[in-house]
Structure formats: structure tokens, C-alpha cells
Amino acid sequence: MEMTRFARLRRSLDELFPERHLYVRSGGEMRAFVLTTGKQLAGAGAVAAGALWMGVCTAAMLVNAMAISGHDQELARMQAKSERLVADREARLNSAVAQLTAAEGGVDQLAITVEKRHAALAMLLSDIKDAPGVAVALAPTIRKASNIPATVSPMRRIELVRAGQERLIDAADDFAKTRADRLRLAFRLAGLTPSSYVPKGGSLGGPLIEAKDPRALAAVLDVDEGFAQRIQHAATNLSEAGALAEAAQNLPFARPVSTGTSSGFGVRFDPFTRRPAFHSGLDFTGGYNFPIQSTAPGVVSFTGVRSGYGNTIEIDHGRGFKTRYAHLQAIAVRPGQRVAVGQRIGAMGSTGRSTGPHLHYEVWVNGRAQNPGRYVKAGDYVLQGD
Fold it and tell me: pTM to 2 decimals?
């Protein structure tokens, strides 16, 4: 029975791919080529494999592009929600000021409240002042709060100062949250868990973070509970953004060279064997002696020749992260040397198993090869927010 099925299959293939004869006339001579069924099957298989490979690569690129677009849409939705909250809080502030003035009938109590809020706000801004981009983000709000006409009455002046404080705390909270969200998304793009890079126990932010109960924080700052809760919320986001930004500076998010890439991470056709093989890194194009830079601070753990890699540099960045730079023409560092991010460590070449000058770049985490392209894209995403 099996032989009969095999014979039927053989006849079907022979009918689909019959033996063909190709005659080529050149220079007065006639040459004949025979295309057997086997050769035709091999050619059809190669075409099908190539089409499948192109389809998989195209699908992967589309999925990646949709993921980044989704992150940008999420940030836009959060920005719109924050603007609605600001408008609502200003309306409630106007109502509260009117009620306070009517109930207490004086300027003194309102002035004391404004002074206490100012002290709490100054404590928050002292932590946020050195963050990248904060000056640009808060400058319009600060100018608006400071631009109070000299002709207004004392009561109106205090009301305007208080309104400026409300806008400033909202702007600071929005800045801290947007920065923290962008850094969280960058870590996820790299395949990392953001929460594992944030210290436990609120080590950043001082009393603004340690006082978990808004009522307790309100007592410490001597302000109303609602304002204390907003101060704490902004301080929490600022603390997490600061921790993630500090962690990002020690992760391989930078580019090893400023050029483009040629071969990505994953299965590809080996340039020597022409067969599918796993490619454990990312290839950057360039010419001989093009400068190579460290993608994160760390300690050089190896320099020398590795089989297939040629002249190689390996850098240990701590927390299980290691980067490898291969096919180099020259090496400018030595084992045990501490390097900074962006420091020149070598020059591009074509040593080892290479078909031309390029950089083979790898990222390893706890002994496992990762996709370097995800780290490069995460680094580009972080830089967009600075």
C-alpha cells in the first residue's frame, strides 16, 4: 500500500514537473540542458522558502511599528486626561477660595495657607529641579504665576498666588508622570520589567514618599489633605522616574556606532554556508577604523581573539548585563579597565568570520543572548523625551 502511494505521488510530481529540455544556441554551437523533475522541485522549494522568510520579516517589522505607535497613543491619552483634571481643579479652587473668604472674612488666614503650601511646593521642586527637561516644562507655568499686576488688591493677589501654586503642582505632577511613563515604556521595549529597577521602601523623595497616609503627610507639611495628596503623588512619580533614569544610564541603551544596521538578531542565511543559521547579534555597517563606542559604563572583561568573532571586546555592565563587540580592526582598551558610556573602545574591521568591514554587536543578560535591536530602540525612545 505504501509503495502504491509513493508511486502515485511520484507520477503526480512527474506530471507537475515533467522533464524539460532547454536548447541554447551561441556562436554557431547548440547546447542542451536537461531540467529534471528533481532540479525543478529544488528550485520551487528555494523560491517558497525565500517567500516565507520575507513574509516573516515583514510581519515582524509591522508588529514592532504598531507597538511603538500604541505607546505614543497611550501617552497622548494620558496628556488629555491630565489637562481635564487641571481644569476641574481650577474650578474647585475658585469655589474653595470664595467659601474661605466668606467664612473667615479676612486675608490673614488665606495668606497663612498660601505660605504653608508654598513651603510644601518648594520641597517638591527642590527634588525635581535637576531632572532633564524640567526647566522647559515648568517655565511657562512659573512665568504665569509670577506675572501678577501691581495694581490688584491684596486679597486678589493672594488668590492669584494660590491659583499659580495649583497650576504649578499640576504641571510638576504632569511632568513627573509623563517622564516616568516614558521611561517605563522604554524599559518594556527592551524586554525589561520597570518595577525591578525601582528601589523598594521609598528610598528617594524623603518624607514626601515615606508618609504613605495623606493625612500624616498633611500633618507633617501643615497643609490641607488634598494638597498633600497631590504633592505625594508628584513626588512618587518623580522618585520612580529618577530611579529608572539612573538605571537607564547603566544599561546598554546607547548606540555602539552612529551608522545603520545590515543584519538583525535571529535566524538568517549564513553568508558562508548559504544555509539558515542563528545570528546572535546586530551588525552595524561602516568602514575600516570607524570608531566603536561603549554602550554603557562598565568594566572590560575580555579583549583578544575569539573563534569566529576575530578581534573582540567584552564589557561587564553589572546586574548580569554584558556587551560584545566583534570583527574589530583595533582594540583601544585592556581587561580590568573601567569605561564610560560613549567612550571609544576600538575600531571597526573585518577580522574573524567576516565578509567585509562591519561591527557585530551582542547584548547578554545572565548568560543569554538578547536582541540588541530592542535595546537600541529603547535608548532612542528615552532620548526623545530629554
Answer: 0.58
Q: Span 190-198, mean pLDDT? A: 86
The mean of the pLDDT values for the chain is 74
Q: What is the pLDDT of residue 161?
A: 64
CA angle 298, 300, 306 (to 5 degrees): 135
pLDDT for 202 equals 46
pLDDT of residue 296 exceeding 90: yes
What value does the mean pLDDT take over residues 353-358? 87
CA distance 327 to 312: 6
Q: Name the residue type at position 315.
A: I
The DSSP 8-state label assigned to residue 50 in this structure reads H
